[in-house]
Amino acid sequence: MALEHAEVLRAAHLARIDLSENDAAHYHDDLGRILEMVDQLQALDTEGVAPLAHPLDATQRLRADEVTESDQREHFQRCAPQVENGLYLVPRVVE
Predict the structure, then answer these.
(1) Cβ pair 52, 44 in contact under 8 A
(2) What is the pTM of this model?
(3) How far apart are the first and last CA of the chain?
(4) Long-range contacts, 45-51 (Cβ 8 Å, 24+)
(5) DSSP-assigned letter for residue 95
């Protein structure tokens, strides 16, 4: 896929990136190489290849689901400026 210099500038404008002409020429080359690599990848035959979430068949070790901290709700509610029925009262910010 051929990439035009104007397309690089347009993409930069859409991304709200201020590129100079010199920088745009540099990115034009880089983006061109990236698009060539994408074309190569699209040419590969992936029939019968299952998609992977991770290349290794590993599982996450999980800790036991048990309480590790004491309940400090009453302490924190005593420190709060305003509390009502166990809820913290805060100033309205959206009218």
Answers:
(1) no
(2) 0.48
(3) 51
(4) none
(5) -
Which contiguous run of DSSP H or E holds residue 5? helix 5-14
Q: pLDDT averaged over consecutive 10-residue blocks of the chain (95 residues)?
A: 84 91 87 92 91 82 90 93 93 86
How many C-beta atoms surround the C-beta of residue 8 within 10 A? 21
- pLDDT value of residue 16: 94
CA-CA distance, 42 to 94, in Å (whole number)?
Answer: 49
Q: Which helix (H) or strand (E) holds 80?
A: none
Instruction: With beta carbons less than 8 A apart as the criterion, state whether 28 and 5 touch.
Output: yes
d(CA 9, CA 18): 9
Q: How far apart are CA 58 and CA 64, in angstroms?
A: 19
